[in-house]
Amino acid sequence: MGERGVIVFIVALVMWPIFAFAVGFYAASKGRRRLPWALLALFISPLIVLIILAVLSVSNEGLILAGKRKKCPQCGDIVPADANICLFCRSKFPSEQPKSDRFQPVRDEGI
Ligand SMILES: [Zn+2]
């Protein structure tokens, strides 16, 4: 390995965990758990895990648990947590949701 090869190797070594960390954030943005996905990226390959995440659908359950989405009590569709009117059925949300009326999470396909 020449001097250039060593530099490329060191850069790749440094970039690998940074990309793995970024993959974790990407997973979180799709309603999935950040740490397991970041670790997966670290041990397998950030690129491969990124592709897996891109193919997987957004986990609405995860987004609801993260407080980013809520379920419309009228039509059952998923809307942003701060929405006042349902995007799908146009029904108005009460300004404050009672705790007992909270969405009951349904089983999703794993993490
Ligand atoms: Zn609705």
Tally of alpha and pi helices: 4
Which strand order do you get reading across the main beta sheet? 1-2
**Oligomer type:** single chain
- By DSSP, the count of extended strands is 2
Tell me the series of helices and strands, N- to C-terminal.
HHHHEE
Number of domains: 2
Bound molecules: zinc ion
Portion of residues within helices: 40-55%
Query: Uncertain spans, ≥5 residues at pLDDT below 50?
Result: none
SS-based structural class? mainly alpha
What do the pLDDT scores average to? 88
Strand composition percent: 5-15%
**End-to-end Cα distance:** 40 Å
Computed CA radius of gyration, to the nearest angstrom: 19 Å
What characteristic shape results from the CA principal axes? Answer: elongated
The major pleated sheet works out as:
2 strands, antiparallel
Could you characterize what this model shows?
The chain is mainly alpha-helical and 111 residues long. It has two domains: 1-57; 59-101, SH3 type barrels (Roll). It contains four helices and two strands. The model has no long low-confidence stretch (mean pLDDT 88). Bound molecules: zinc ion. Zinc ion binds at residues 72, 74-75, 77, 86, 88-89, 91.
Q: What's the helix and strand layout?
A:
Layout: H1 3-29, H2 34-43, H3 46-55, H4 60-65, E1 69-71, E2 78-80
Antiparallel strand pairs: 1-2
Helix pairs in contact: 1-2, 1-3, 2-3
The structure holds zinc ion.
